[in-house]
Design goal:
about 110 residues, alpha+beta, 3 strands, globular
């Protein structure tokens, strides 16, 4: 991550996370990732941001969080999700697994690659 981007995140009281992973691009996650893409690129990124931040300990798992992302330029998608680690997406414990609690914003027109 570029230093100026880190500084801007800090200026807005955010917590910059770098050296991250892409959990939905891991082996065996194609079907999950492609399912999220049906709701839009931003939706997939929102979910991935929650998973990354949870995996790195920046979020408390089990808490409701708002994730915002976008396609190309700007933000166009926002969700409320229960924070969970990638390893718990499909946990037998219903309180640990990923839950999309609400879709706050999502573009009508999707971008497909």
């Amino acid at each position: 991550m570029k230093q100026e981007i880190k500084e801007e995140i800090l200026r807005f009281s955010g917590k910059p996370l770098d050296k991250t992973h892409l959990p939905l691009h891991a082996r065996g996650m194609n079907a999950v990732r492609n399912s999220f893409y049906t709701l839009g690129q931003g939706f997939k990124v929102c979910v991935e941001v929650v998973l990354i931040a949870s995996d790195l300990g920046a979020l408390n798992t089990g808490e409701d969080v708002i994730a915002v992302a976008g396609t190309d330029k700007g933000s166009d998608t926002a969700i409320v999700a229960r924070a969970c680690k990638t390893s718990d997406i499909f946990s037998k414990d219903k309180l640990k697994r990923l839950e999309i609690r609400e879709i706050l914003a999502m573009p009508l027109k999707k971008m497909w690659w």
